[in-house]
Amino acid sequence: MADLFTKYVNVFGQFLFHQKFYIRFITYQKNKTIFMEAWEEYQEKNKERFLNEMMELLRIPSVSAKSEHIQDMTKCAEAVKKSLLASGADKVEIMQTDGFPVVYAEKIIDANKPTVLVYGHYDVQPAEPLELWHSKPFDPVIKDGKVYARGSADDKGQFYMHVKALETLVKTNTMSTNIKFLIEGEEEIGSPNLGKFVGEHKELLKADVILISDSSMLSMENPSLDIGVRGLSYIEVEVTGADHDLHSGTYGGAVANPITILSKMIASCHDENNHITIPGFYDDVIESTKEERELMNKAPYSEEEYKKEVGVNELWGEKGYTTNERTGIRPTLEVNGIWGGYTGEGAKTVLPSKATAKISARLVPNQSSAKMSKILIDYFSKIAPPSVTVKAFEHHGGEPYMTPIDSPGYKAASKAVEKTFGKTPIPVRGGGSIPICSILERELGVKIIFMGFGLDSDNLHSPNEKYGIANFYKGIKTIPYFHKYFSEPNL
Ligand SMILES: [Zn+2]
Questions:
Q1: 88-126 per-position pLDDT tens digit
Q2: Does residue 242 contact residue 481 with C-beta atoms inside 8 Å?
Q3: What's the CA-to-centroid distance between 368 and ligand 1, angstroms?
């Protein structure tokens, strides 16, 4: 009898337990739907304005590399400040550095909640060569669903998604994390002053994760998340022959031509397999394992489309590696520019005195930027024949960076992308460099999550830079989920 009684009590208890669980489940489902609906409704209502605001920002030619744009830089920082204030940040400040200022903003809801630091940059690359643009670089136009303008994808259009995600969360009263913004103005010139700034403002910038949208994904159909960026070494090499330009008829054949010598030196950097021959170049590279390479090569890739996209008949690269590997796990060497002698209209015979090249290397984890710059400078100085003199110096550099895929930040990003794209994003190694990554992690001690919504075909740093409007909206839609999932990892 007692047994039967116990049984009844147990069954009844279980019923109550399940009932409670069921009610909790329903409430949770309801809450979940409420915030989702609120976000969607708010964003749908304001989408035109979001886009117009972003395009306004693109009209400011904030080119950090050129002194003629100093005032535009200030104007742009002011515009970013204004937009952050209008979007609901409590505190926004333009903070001075030894170079261009940083825009800092925050919206703190609860000191006990996790804090997300959003990093972005308001400066852009120079727009030159202007004649290759189909429309004016600082007068954005919409064509085929894309916004064409310098900075549309890199990085104004991308960091602005975070500003509008903040607005969405604030206006729908659904913030679940504290949000801080660090929008700098010197990324495109190598962030020379940001390390010092971050070091001096560790408390202000304190966060649990750093979120960056300044990279691309594979495609809208195959979303991906970058798990690493390459580092960079950048040097300039100047070769001098005679101490002034000479008549190529009178002196040609008797005096070394610096352009010929420099070309030969550059040509010697790759062998017939496009493997780099510079001594020590690969010394610190940790080779990816077979398993890692297999996983990486699962990413969808069509060689035909890739060739079409860049406009070549045949691809080029280091033998033994796939395209994804060449741009992800392998270090590379590129000549970014070369000049000397007469380059004006018509013909002018001259044996130039000087030839110069800008040369950079992309680095993979475990390689050091400073060490690589020294390797490159030593190489060019050493192989020069005695008929010329070589001056080489370092421009800027940056260390490679990797982020683990089992961190709470990565998991939140992956879930957020899955939620809005309907597919789990593929983790990929990005080919570009964001030199500030290693500095941010070193100074603030937290991991960086790359949630880029651009495409490789967005013409970053090139004429006709563009950013898909669908990408822009998708980013704004996805980012609030990141905050939600980061604050409630069990959701
Ligand atoms: Zn960028």
A1: 999 999 999 999 999 999 999 999 999 999 999 999 999
A2: no
A3: 21
